[in-house]
């Protein structure tokens, strides 16, 4: 999959003092592929994303975006690479001081210098795709429910038509029914864009819905990766314990 990879991480390692978080992580995401990385809290999923986004610098390894090394690139090159990305944050991370449509259009106006009129049209179009209308477009995020905020976050993530989209725990804080709605919206929007996606989650319902391929991160490494349809027959005891939420197994749970 190397030649076609939109995103490729090789031997990525990151420590904080004596604590090793990523320890030779290898992962790739192909053109149009949806990869979901599962794993418990504190296993390094968020650190992995931050390394890709350039918020953290690995001590070792390579991160390629469309074949281009992005570790140690300059500010202008970093800005160019970031324009390829869309991101749905765990808490939606909306600007409470801006209206909903201005949140959705933020990257278009601030990043691309688009006119407000055109950005407004695109914002309404993207909001409609996630089931929100013009009435909500002029509201403020503080008046929205958790599910509506996630929808706005998704609309913002797709507004610039990115080629690679990252989803950080997309269903956290939502009830199961709204979580299912968000998962289906993600699948629909990503399919329409033809984007490659990398999702991190511990929600197996979300992983099964979104993923073409699932990878499990444990102790800083990918210990299993395969088609989402194969996860129940992975043959990996760590994966089996995690996806079924069992207390007994090779993963030792920290208590207290």
The global form is globular
Strand order of the largest sheet: 6-7-8-3-9-10
Strand content: 25-35%
Low-confidence stretches: none
CATH superfamily of the domain at 1-84 and 195-256, by name, is P-loop containing nucleotide triphosphate hydrolases
Counting DSSP E segments of at least 2 residues, the number of strands comes to 10
- What is the string of SSEs from the N terminus onward? EEEHEEHEHHHHHEHEHEEH
Q: If helices are DSSP runs of H or I spanning 4 or more residues, what is the number of helices?
A: 10
CATH level 1 class label of the domain at 1-84 and 195-256? Alpha Beta
* CATH fold category name of the domain at 1-84 and 195-256: Rossmann fold
Helix amount = 25-40%
Gyration radius over CA: 18 Å
Largest sheet: 6 strands, mixed
Mean pLDDT: 90
The CATH architecture of the domain at 1-84 and 195-256? 3-Layer(aba) Sandwich
Give a short synopsis of this structure:
It contains ten helices and ten strands.
List the helices and strands and how they pair.
Blueprint: E1 5-16, E2 19-30, E3 34-38, H1 45-53, E4 60-65, E5 68-69, H2 75-82, E6 85-88, H3 100-104, H4 106-111, H5 116-129, H6 134-137, H7 146-159, E7 164-168, H8 176-193, E8 196-201, H9 204-210, E9 213-218, E10 221-227, H10 237-244
Parallel strand pairs: 3-8, 3-9, 6-7, 7-8
Antiparallel strand pairs: 1-2, 1-4, 4-5, 9-10
Helix pairs in contact: 5-7, 7-8, 8-9
């Amino acid at each position: 999959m190397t030649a076609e990879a939109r995103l490729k991480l090789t031997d990525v390692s990151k420590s904080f003092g004596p604590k090793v978080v990523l320890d030779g992580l290898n992962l790739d995401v192909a053109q149009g592929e949806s990869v979901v990385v599962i794993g418990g809290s504190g296993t390094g999923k968020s650190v992995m994303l931050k390394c890709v986004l350039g918020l953290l610098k690995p001590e070792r390894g390579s991160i390629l975006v469309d074949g281009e090394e992005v570790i140690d690139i300059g500010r202008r090159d970093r800005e160019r690479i970031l324009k390829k990305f869309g991101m749905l944050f765990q808490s939606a991370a909306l600007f409470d001081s801006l209206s909903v449509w201005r949140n959705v259009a933020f990257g278009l106006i601030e990043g691309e210098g688009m006119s407000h009129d055109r950005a407004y049209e695109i914002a309404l179009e993207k909001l409609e795709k996630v089931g929100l209308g013009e009435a909500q477009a002029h509201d403020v995020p503080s008046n929205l429910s958790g599910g509506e905020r996630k929808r706005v976050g998704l609309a913002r993530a797709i507004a610039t038509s990115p080629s690679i989209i990252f989803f950080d725990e997309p269903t956290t804080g939502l009830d199961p029914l709204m979580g299912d709605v968000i998962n289906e919206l993600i699948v629909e929007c990503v399919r329409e864009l033809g984007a490659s996606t990398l999702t991190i989650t511990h929600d197996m319902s979300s992983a099964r819905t979104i993923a073409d391929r699932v990878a499990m991160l444990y102790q800083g490494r990918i210990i299993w990766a395969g088609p989402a349809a194969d996860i129940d027959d992975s043959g990996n005891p760590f994966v089996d314990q995690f996806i079924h939420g069992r207390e007994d197994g090779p993963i030792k749970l920290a208590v207290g």
